[in-house]
Amino acid sequence: GISIEERFLAKCFNTEQVPIIDHYTYAIVSDGDLMEGISSEAGSLAGYLKLGKLIYLYDDNHISIEGDTDITFTEDVSRRFEAYGWQVLRVTDGTNLEEIENAIVEAQKEKEKPSIIIVRNHIGYGSPKQDTPAAHGEPLGTEAIKQTKEALKWPYEKSFHTPKEATEHFKKTTDKGRQKEAEWKKLLEKYQESEPELAKEFEQVINGELPPELDKNMPIYSPEDGPIATRAASGKVMNQLAKMLPHSFAGGSGDLAPSTKTMLLGYGDFGFDKACSHNVHFGVREHAMGAIINGMALHGGIIPYGATFFVFSDYMRPALRLAALMQTQSIFVFTHDSIALGEDGPTHQPIEQIMSLRAMPGMNVIRPADANETSAAWKIAIENKKPVSLLFSRQKLPILDTEKYPVIEGTPKGAYILEEAENKNPEIILIATGSEVHLTMETKKQLQKEGIQTRVVSMPSGELFEKQTKEYKEKVLITDVPKLAIEAGSTLGWHKYADDVIGIDRFGASAPGNIVLEKLGFSTENVTKHAMALLKRT
To answer: Which of 201, 208, 204 has the alpha carbon at shortest distance from 386?
Structure first.
């Protein structure tokens, strides 16, 4: 991800005279790392993209926690990476600094292939536990530390010792870093003189500055524009964002752009010899896609997004968790957000995914009810600079009239009163997200016919709602009024807000989306029935 971002920014901002972005990306990888599936996904894509400034240093020590790697990992790593399109270099002695430096210099010369330098090392070098699993997962212990220091001719009388030579060396490194920074600042000054407009945009992008017109240029839809699937509305919003953020908004999908509607039209396909192209084709590599998005976000300069079907968020889970842990501005776009996707059936119909993401600390999950909540959700994702998962529907949904409903101002609060009871004193509150919001609006009509005063609350994001004041939350969800939540996903967690829940605690079924919804209880008749039963109980 960092290497991709380096190339993207270089293609967008470098001139022949001034290469303002020009760095290598290094990664240290282990035997265990290369066993993981993500290493294959990332290695394959890096080779295809010819990321010549990406250099791996492979710590080839032949040891894992359970023993010698011969018990699980005997493949020829060099031939594997050659097959990916990488340059493979070898260092036979990991203690030979000159040999390592020469290999790195050689790797830097290769412009069209990423490089992996296979460095033969010995785990626990110099200790009595050298080349054993004990050196991997256990402390050396007092006696072994003494023996190791003796073997390495290191003073063992002191528990902590930094040689004078090491201190002097690192001081020189600090001085060298200051010199390099000063050289780059001079380069920036030259850039500002020769390309003032481009330099100004470059600094805005690097500093994460957003255009002041973002507020007024976010799309707003009228009911006459619909119905429209929120995935399709998202695609329209994304292309508007690309115009407002021409050099700081990029990403792609896991081979699903036509379905996720995430192609930035007219912005080209990212590759080796294509200038400043914004659409990254990740292929069917969801885990790597998520990790790459995080890397792009960590580098800085681009607001990155990655898209796939919501059920495939399972493949991305470690990357999603790291985004939440690191609080990177990683935007994950998930479409086909419920059983309403229809005929693809249980394998593709998400059930537990939405609550599992909500359970992830630091991950903001937003499931919009229509095109206007979608536009507001994207604005939140761009402005908040935190990880967010955006969940969009496959099926078409009516558009909420912004002149009638407080959609734009309500969505950032996570939950808001969409439709109030006629007398403004509700006897029951219906809470819903996404496509189910429209179902609750229809149910309200039925309940009103029965003389039951009903409030409808749209709750696109519980995380945003929890950030509101206690007074606001109690105003929206009145404490002593019975509440019924409706969402086409797991019921787990909803009882925090509701007295009863209509959800799905089983896998879906293969049939047209509207039929699946009806058969599994998402109908006006069933929601009305549950509401009446809840009122009787309370």
So the answer is: 208
Contact 330, 297 (CB under 8 A): yes
Backbone dihedral region of 347: left (phi > 0), alpha (psi from -120 to 50 degrees) or beta? alpha
Closest CA to 136 of 227, 66, 59: 66
Structure tokens at 21: 């972005």
* C-beta separation of 287 from 332 below 8 A: no
Buried b (16+ CB within 10 A) or exposed e, 34-49: beeebbbbbbbbbbeb
- Block residue for tokens 């290469």: 19
3-state SS, residue 91? strand
pLDDT tens track of the chain, all 538 residues?
A: 999 999 999 999 999 999 999 999 999 999 999 999 999 999 999 999 999 999 999 999 999 999 999 999 999 999 999 999 999 999 999 999 999 999 999 999 999 999 999 999 999 999 999 999 999 989 999 999 999 999 998 887 888 888 889 899 999 999 999 999 999 999 999 999 999 999 999 999 999 999 988 988 999 999 999 899 999 999 999 999 999 999 999 999 999 999 999 999 999 999 866 778 999 999 999 999 999 999 999 999 999 999 999 999 999 999 999 999 999 999 999 999 999 999 999 999 999 999 999 999 999 999 999 999 999 999 999 999 999 999 999 999 999 999 999 999 999 999 999 999 999 999 999 999 999 999 999 999 999 999 999 999 999 999 999 999 999 999 999 999 999 999 999 999 999 999 999 999 999 999 999 999 999 999 999 999 999 999 999 8
Question: Which amino acid belongs to residue 96?
Answer: N
Burial readout 137-154 (b: 16 or more C-beta within 10 A, e: otherwise)? eeebeeebbebbbeeeee
What would the pLDDT profile of 214-236 be if each residue is shown by its tens digit? 988 999 999 999 899 999 999 99
Say if residues 201 and 338 touch (Cβ distance below 8 Å). Answer: no
Phi, psi of 56 (to 5 degrees): -95, 140
Residue with token string 């950032």: 412
SS3 238: helix
Q: Which two tokens stand for residue 426?
A: 């509700």
Please name which of 288, 516, 293, 286 lies closest in space to residue 394, comparing C-alpha atoms.
516
What torsion do the CA atoms of 488, 494, 497, 499 make, to the nearest 10 degrees?
Answer: 90
Exposed e or buried b for every residue in 462-499, given b needs 16+ CB within 10 A? bbbbeebeeeebeebbeeebbbbbbbbbbbebbeebbb
Q: Which of 408, 535, 415 is nearest to 482 (CA)?
A: 535
For the annotated catalytic residues, the residue numbers are 286
Q: Are 364 and 389 in contact (CB under 8 A)?
A: yes
